[in-house]
């Protein structure tokens, strides 16, 4: 029997441990979210504006799987279970030599993504997941790749206007080119200096490139504070100031928010919706620092105000049972618990015994077998 995955776990010991580790790692080491190190400045100064590419085109996220209409017979054939668990993977910095436990190397990211591709996972954005817009081929499994803090190792452009080698975006595109079914999308939750850039024109060029290539750029607050440690009005200010930056950079309002350190404001509702200084926000999904796969967005138990994530990491220390290597292996061993797509974004296919697990407002979409 699998460990319980319920909204009450949000404030449980496992998630608290992840938050504590993140607080120590990001606040005390160089290059954290609020104190960029010297290498950030160096890369920032060399960052070129977007230039026409002279290289072969990279894989794009615009291609969608051919539409199907799932019947009970078809859903049974592909073993569809759209009430199952979805891994929402959380990444921070990519460094050649890891400094903090939450860091990953480019090689570790590449290895994990190739493993996902081989096993049949297909990336979707956090916005698509939170809104229940899951368009994944029949028999495949959605996965959400999320990157916190807008670190320079996530994205940068070389002189030809292509993603810099060994950045997160470059690695995602390389894996997608090698495994065509692996959709090259991810979510980047940024603070006030996205990707180590201070110049607003360069910031705008960077985020525009990302959204034009199918990536999501969304809200991780202005300066990455612990929202629970401040008054609610200040927490709302942090969220709104970043929303205003997104607008200045030419993006629409974000539909998702990642909580710094996974720390919920004193008033939980303030994370998902609210206003400050005349500017409102209203999110489809608020994401934690996490320690478990998320329940399906179609599930009766889905709490869009506290969506679980899994830290990308091996199986040492706290990660023996709470990080990506453990959970991806667990889902392989428990395929009946994993979200399996039916290929039909308009229906929700589940085994008959799971019909009642689907939220009441979605029951008219259920295709049970």
Q: Remind me, CATH topology?
A: TIM Barrel
**What sort of overall outline do the alpha carbons produce when their principal axes are compared?**
globular
Approximately how much beta-strand content do the residues carry?
5-15%
CATH architecture: Alpha-Beta Barrel
Could you explain the architecture of this structure?
By secondary structure, the protein is an alpha/beta fold. It has a single domain (7-30, 83-341), classed as Glycoside hydrolase/deacetylase (TIM Barrel), CATH 3.20.20.370. It is 28% helix and 12% strand. It has ten helices and twelve strands. It has helices at residues 13-28, 38-46, 72-77, 106-119, 126-130, 168-178, 200-212, 232-248, 269-272, 324-333, and strands spanning 88-91, 121-124, 141-148, 187-190, 216-219, 256-258, 273-276, 279-282, 285-287, 310-311, 348-350, 366-368. The strands form four sheets. Strands 1, 2, 3, 4, 5 and 10 form a six-stranded parallel sheet that branches. Strand 2 (121-124), helix 5 and strand 3 (141-148) form a beta-alpha-beta unit. Residues 1-57 have low confidence and may be disordered.
Secondary structure topology:
Elements: H1 13-28, H2 38-46, H3 72-77, E1 88-91, H4 106-119, E2 121-124, H5 126-130, E3 141-148, H6 168-178, E4 187-190, H7 200-212, E5 216-219, H8 232-248, E6 256-258, H9 269-272, E7 273-276, E8 279-282, E9 285-287, E10 310-311, H10 324-333, E11 348-350, E12 366-368
Parallel strand pairs: 1-3, 1-10, 2-3, 3-4, 4-5, 6-9, 11-12
Antiparallel strand pairs: 7-8
Helix pairs in contact: 4-6
